[in-house]
Every structure is written in C-alpha cells, then in structure tokens.
Amino acid sequence: MSSDDVSEEYEEEEKLPYLGEYEGDRNEEGERHGYGKAILPNGDKYEGQYEHGKRHGKGTYKFKNGARYIGEYQENKKHGQGTFFYADGSQYEGDWVNDERHGFGVYRYPNNDTYTGEWFAGQRHGQGTYLYAETGSKYVGTWVNGQQEGTGELIHLQHRYQGKFMGKNPVGPGKYIFDIGCEQHGEYILKEVEEEEGEEEEAVKPPVPIWKAKKIAPLALYTPPLPEVPPQSDISPAQEEPQTSGVGEKVTTQPPADYSEADELDAEKKAKENLESLMMEELKQGSTEEEERERNSQSSN
How confident is the model at residue 203 (pLDDT cuts 50, 70, 90)? Predict the structure, then answer.
C-alpha cells in the first residue's frame, strides 16, 4: 500500500491518559496555550502553537517512523496550509481540511511521479495533472475519487490523445494528434478478456480498451481573422473609370481560382503518407528490438 492510500495519522496525544512531556506556555487553567514543545507517549514530537490544550496554529510534528508535518493545525488536526514528508519518501504540499488533503496541492510520489491539482477528502478529485516521471507522459483532465474519469488529454512525447476516460482507461469517441501533422479520429471500445483454461473463476479480468480508427485528417490549423474592409468611396460603380493596361486596353478583373478543395485533398494525402511512414518506422524498430533480444538470449545460452 502506498502512502497515498493509507492514513498518515498517528497522533495520540488526546487519546492517552498520560500526555507525555511538555515545555512551554500555559493559560490560567493550566492548559497548554501559546508556544510549546511536547514529547508524546508514543514517541512522536510536536513543536509549535497550542490553544486550550490542543495543537492550534503553526507547528511541526515529527513521527517516530520518520515522517514529518510542517504546517497549520486547528484543534489537533491538520487544517490549512502544510507540507507532509512521508516515511516512504513521498511528499504532499498544499491544502488540508480536517486532517485530510483537501483543496489544491502537489503530491510527489516515491517513483518521482507528480500530481498537481485538486483534492477532496484525501483523494485526487477535480481538475489535475499527473506527470509520469519514467516516460515523460502526462494526463491532464478530470479526476473522480482518485481515478482518471471524464474529459482528459493524455500527452506523450510525439503524440497526444484527447477524449474521455473512465477508471484510468480511455472510452468512447476521441482522437490522436500526431506531431507529423495529422489527426486520427476513432473510438475506444471495451472488450472483455477471455478466460484461459486453468484460471480460477473468481479472478475476473477487467475489460481492455480497443482502439477503432475511423479516419485520418490534417490538423485544423489556426486561421487569423481577416483585416477590416476599408469603407467604400462615394463614387458609384458606374462612375468609376475602367482600368487600362499600358497600351490603353481595358483590363478585365478575374476572380482568383478556388484551390481550397484541391489543397484539402492534397493535405489529407500527405497526412496519410506521413502516418503510414511513422507506423512503418515503429514496426521496423519493434522488429529490430525483438531480433536483438533473441540474439542476446541465444548468446547467453
């Protein structure tokens, strides 16, 4: 279990009859009130603000397992801005409400993955970005109860996918956008995995998303707005003088030829050729890597 899934709360100051050692300010009732240092019965340590016997305000809590929290408290609970350094090396910095990650925050995991975005009741929930450190890919979109769900974009080094996600998997209509200058439209269909002989009936495998491509299209490039047309002169068309060439002949103005349809067909043809070339390169690279692994295996034997 990762530190993101389990509770980090080990504080037991208010649950034990023996309150440990304390050095600091007190109020007239003898309660810990103001600034103080405490060693709890379980070995944890706290240094910071107290109010009426409870941690309240800014403080630092050091757990006996090596974890550490630096931030704000409200009635013995992490509340407000704070940073938690977990024992496994992960770290969360952001908003807290009632002892849970809640609001906006950044979580750095032990494998150097990073999530930056909204939290609700201790889980990723709302809009957020998850960066995969090993591949450089990242997911930007909606989260529900810790899972990628809703509209999102999965960005890789040379292409990206835009669509909807459910339980970490893409589902329904979407499109791939390639850096070579084209888009591939289609949809993801969830396919049930057939059970193999000898497998236990209880081991139910989740459905696998299968991409069904429909069409390839050129990228929809941004078109700047046309400049404003200057106001026409007061001279009516009948009063305007006809234009002439250098030898005095009338010049007939011809409308420009419309090449939009031809250009679109040419762009789509080039996009298809570029995509086919990219796919062939990936197939060749995969075949070369497979042959290399086979040669290494034979040489090791």
Answer: low
